[in-house]
Please model this.
Amino acid sequence: MKHNPINKKRIVIRSRTRFSIFLAVIAILCISFIASLLNDGNAANNITWEIVDVQKGDTLWGIAKRTLPDNTDIRQYIIEIREANNLEHSNINEGQRLYIPVY
Model:
């Protein structure tokens, strides 16, 4: 059985300019995607930390409210503080030292 050459499909580039533009757009999209991934990886390194010594009567909510960045959900911010300080719950004690992320 011989292979029938009629069924072979060939890709024909009709316009070199269009093909070049297509390749350029694909390259730009790939570079943008890679750059955004690299930038996201560096975002965690741009966080500075404020050290807060817990005073009598302080609550995690109160400390978070004092240091809360603009346009930030306080609940999410408290979760970040808890994760940064390995807190299982929101109870804190006088004299405890907390690391607070500052953006």
In short: Residues 46-102 form a domain with the Membrane-bound Lytic Murein Transglycosylase D; Chain A fold (CATH 3.10.350.10). The chain has a mean pLDDT of 87.
